[in-house]
């Protein structure tokens, strides 16, 4: 099938590459010429494990190509996936300007039946807006070409995106038009060979499903974070509590880790957008308001601990920081807790030496020529002259560090572990002063 993917970011590039890998002819469109240039030259503008190889393979096979030409893109695929960003607007609602611009471009140039697939995370009712935008553009040029709008939210996780796309838990499709349903069934058939993962529903339910999933996961994290803070005061250990409840199959193990807050390109903005959708329709989603408030508090928990240990004025203090990305296996720093932590340390007069396996370039882009922030090529190199080590992202390579080096290279052996990576008793036995999250 000929497929167009509009927006070549995390979701668009992964979707395009995986759809090409099963034999489709995919054209990826982006309005950012720099991104398309990198891709045309054989590079990859983001870090996602396995993505480079799959892109290379499909470009070489002639099944995957890139363009900035909106007319060519609209005329290419019978399915047109919209995978552009939906960042939060000032009031927290999802800003749909990129989605609507993409829809208008399709309407301006399409010359045959199209299934327009909303893959971006968009509020309930967006499919209607996309339909109206396309219809308006068609009407302007007197065209009666038929089209259908489908909701197909994406559930991939950055860092495991290829695996998630290739072997999805479920594929949610909100569609009413039988022709569009049949096309979606054909397109996704290669991804569900051992059992049917397609869940068909009406468009509005599909749009809400995506927000429901992210809001539920964010809720679990904030719940555990609040309990962690309480556990600390009560002298209980949240890690033991986690094991005690995770073993209950009604609760399960996932997303029960206490830490220094959730971030990334999805949870913060999707929780905000769902709260906004609720209030626009007269529903005050109190639980999600609390989830968000708890997360804001949690992003400051590590700095609060640092202040309790070193005092409010951190002038002249220097900190080693491990992990900039909002989670491991990605270079994404959108809404990452590291950004809040670094700014809060700067505000109190401190300097920071940071290390991250893949996100340092992204940090340089965000912080620019910030003289208070330096980068090290290896985790150990951040430690020299630092007053303490602060761990913000649970990268695998931090799991078993050289504790001897941590002890000898820091000015004094103090560690703030924002991801509960270590057993406090073991670290203390190493002679390191240890502060975790909710560890009694
Ligand atoms: N990143 C994730 O893990 C993830 C997971 C599931 C769903 N989503 C959702 O998918 C959507 C995309 O997220 P992302 O992280 O891939 O975003 P991204 O910012 O990485 O990529 C979006 C791309 O769209 C391009 N773009 C903007 N307007 C365009 C237009 N009119 N035509 C063509 N290209 C255009 C941008 O230049 C950019 O390259 C969002 O709604 C997001 O909430 C993201």
UniProtKB/TrEMBL annotation:
Keywords annotated in UniProt: NAD, Oxidoreductase
Pfam family, one: UDPG_MGDP_dh
Gene Ontology molecular function terms on file: NAD binding; UDP-glucose 6-dehydrogenase activity
Enzyme Commission number, as recorded: 1.1.1.22
Keyword Ion transport belongs to the record: no
Task performed by this protein: Catalyzes the conversion of UDP-glucose into UDP-glucuronate, one of the precursors of teichuronic acid.
Protein name: UDP-glucose 6-dehydrogenase
Organism listed in the record: Denitromonas halophila
């Amino acid at each position: 099938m000929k497929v167009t993917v509009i927006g070549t970011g995390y979701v668009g590039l992964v979707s395009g590459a995986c759809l090409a890998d099963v034999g489709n002819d995919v054209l990826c469109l982006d309005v950012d010429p720099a991104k398309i240039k990198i891709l045309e030259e054989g590079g990859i503008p983001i870090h996602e494990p396995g993505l480079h190889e799959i892109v290379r393979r499909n470009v070489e096979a002639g099944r995957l190509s890139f363009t900035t030409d909106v007319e060519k893109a609209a005329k290419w695929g019978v399915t047109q996936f919209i995978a552009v960003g939906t960042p939060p607007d000032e009031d927290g609602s999802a800003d749909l300007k990129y989605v609507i611009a993409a829809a208008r471009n399709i309407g301006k140039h399409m010359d045959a039946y199209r299934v327009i697939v909303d893959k971006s995370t968009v509020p309930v009712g967006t499919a209607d807006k996309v339909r109206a935008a396309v219809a308006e553009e068609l009407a302007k040029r007197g065209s009666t070409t038929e089209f259908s709008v489908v909701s197909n939210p994406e559930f991939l996780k950055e860092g495991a995106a290829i695996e998630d796309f290739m072997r999805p838990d479920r594929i949610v499709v909100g569609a009413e038009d039988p022709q569009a349903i049949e096309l979606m069934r054909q397109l996704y058939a290669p991804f569900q060979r051992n059992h049917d993962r397609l869940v068909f529903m009406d468009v509005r339910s599909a749009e809400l499903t995506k927000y429901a999933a992210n809001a539920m996961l964010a809720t679990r994290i904030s719940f555990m974070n609040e309990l962690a803070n309480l556990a600390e005061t009560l002298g209980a250990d949240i890690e033991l509590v986690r094991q005690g409840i995770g073993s209950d199959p009604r609760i399960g193990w996932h997303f029960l880790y206490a830490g220094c807050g959730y971030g990334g390109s999805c949870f913060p903005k999707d929780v905000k957008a769902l709260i906004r959708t609720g209030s626009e329709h007269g529903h005050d989603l109190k639980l999600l308001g609390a989830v968000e408030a708890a997360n804001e508090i949690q992003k400051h928990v590590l700095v609060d601990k640092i202040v309790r240990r070193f005092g409010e004025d951190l002038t002249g203090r220097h900190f080693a920081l491990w992990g900039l990305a909002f989670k491991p296996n990605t270079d994404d720093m959108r809404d990452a807790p590291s950004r809040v932590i670094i700014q809060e340390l700067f505000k109190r007069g401190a300097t920071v030496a940071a290390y991250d396996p893949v996100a340092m370039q992204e940090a340089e882009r965000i912080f620019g020529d910030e003289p208070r922030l330096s980068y090290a090529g290896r985790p150990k190199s951040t430690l020299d002259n630092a007053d303490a080590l602060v761990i913000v992202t649970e990268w695998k390579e931090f799991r078993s560090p050289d504790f001897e080096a941590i002890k000898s290279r820091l000015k004094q052996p103090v560690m703030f572990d924002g991801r509960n990576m270590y057993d406090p008793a073991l670290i203390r036995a190493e002679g390191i002063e240890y502060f975790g999250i909710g560890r009694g």
